[in-house]
Write a structure and sequence with these properties.
alpha+beta; single chain; disordered N terminus; three-stranded mixed beta sheet; 293 residues; 3 domains; six-stranded antiparallel beta sheet; Arc Repressor Mutant, subunit A
């Protein structure tokens, strides 16, 4: 059962509420793992205390929006290389189906790179998932996995080459995700018995970002998770972290030094860590318009 109480989810006062912070997730069943990793639910949040942020995400997501007094709709959010800050004009809840590495083309009919930093209607895409949009919009969260277990295996057809490429990509993603200090692309390619060029091409088509950018996004997301989980950040409850704690976060996550971490964080989040943690972020905008394919 997917349920979440956004008040109890917030482990510490937060001036910037992130989508990840209020999302309840369940992993996809084993039979769906080739194509999906998890299903998340973001409840309707009324009057957030500050900005609502979507942090960078190196995955493609099918979003089923449940907005009050409006028809349900299905969108696809591609990999997001920069944080975006919003002030929603209308309360809305949503379900998020996160696609597995290499599953974008089989499900959506385009390479992941065609969706990077874009938001499009699911029905505008040529893949098989577009034909399921109507049914998905009508289902409750607890019904979605059962529906997809019945539908996807009979609709997706992959040859041995495509499955082998997907397996390589999943292994590369697991290796990069497990090492906060990063991995040498040369060593990783050798370990996976592919060339560096082939590895980069697999990431571009199957993930939508390069291996290097995938690792950068992973490290910044890890820092945010550590702070939310209660990793000491120095100062008082509402104060920014001190230099010692930032230096420790940098060391724990494989950065050369604190300035390296700060530069990476600023590039992806739009502001340095101190500013983000005290709520000093870019001016939020209304929900972004849809892109066209």
């Amino acid at each position: 059962m997917l349920t979440v109480d956004p008040v109890t989810t917030l482990s510490r006062p937060a001036l910037v509420v992130t989508a990840d912070l209020v999302e309840a997730t369940v992993p996809a069943p084993e039979s769906l793992r080739p194509w999906l990793t998890e299903l998340g639910r973001i409840p309707t949040i009324r009057d957030p205390a500050g900005s609502f942020a979507h942090v960078p995400q190196a995955a493609t997501t099918i979003v089923l929006r449940r907005q009050e007094s409006a028809p349900r709709a299905a969108f696809v959010i591609g990999p997001q290389t920069r944080a975006r800050y919003y002030q929603p004009d209308k309360p809305a809840a949503c379900l998020r189906l996160r696609l597995a590495p290499g599953a974008v083309r089989p499900l959506l009919g385009v390479p992941a790179s065609a969706l990077t930093d874009r938001v499009v209607r699911l029905t505008d895409l040529p893949g098989i998932a577009a034909g399921l949009a109507g049914e998905l919009n009508e289902l409750d969260a607890d019904e979605i996995f059962a529906f997809l277990k019945d539908q996807l295996p009979q609709r997706i057809s992959e040859d041995a080459t495509r499955r082998a490429q997907r397996d390589i990509l999943r292994s590369a993603v697991a290796a990069l995700s497990a090492r906060p200090d990063g991995r040498s692309m040369t060593a990783l390619a050798r370990e996976l018995a592919v060339s560096e060029r082939q590895l980069r091409n697999l990431f571009t088509a199957g993930i939508g970002v390069s291996p290097k950018h995938f690792a950068r996004i992973g490290r910044v997301r890890r820092i945010l998770s550590q702070v939310r989980a209660g990793t000491p950040v120095g100062g008082g409850e509402h104060e920014p972290p001190d230099a010692t704690s930032l230096a420790q976060l940098a060391a724990d996550n494989g950065y050369f030094d604190q300035s390296h971490m700060t530069a990476d964080f600023r590039t992806l989040m739009g502001v340095p860590p101190r500013s983000f943690l005290r709520g000093a972020v870019p001016t939020p905008s209304p929900c972004r318009p849809l892109d066209r394919i």
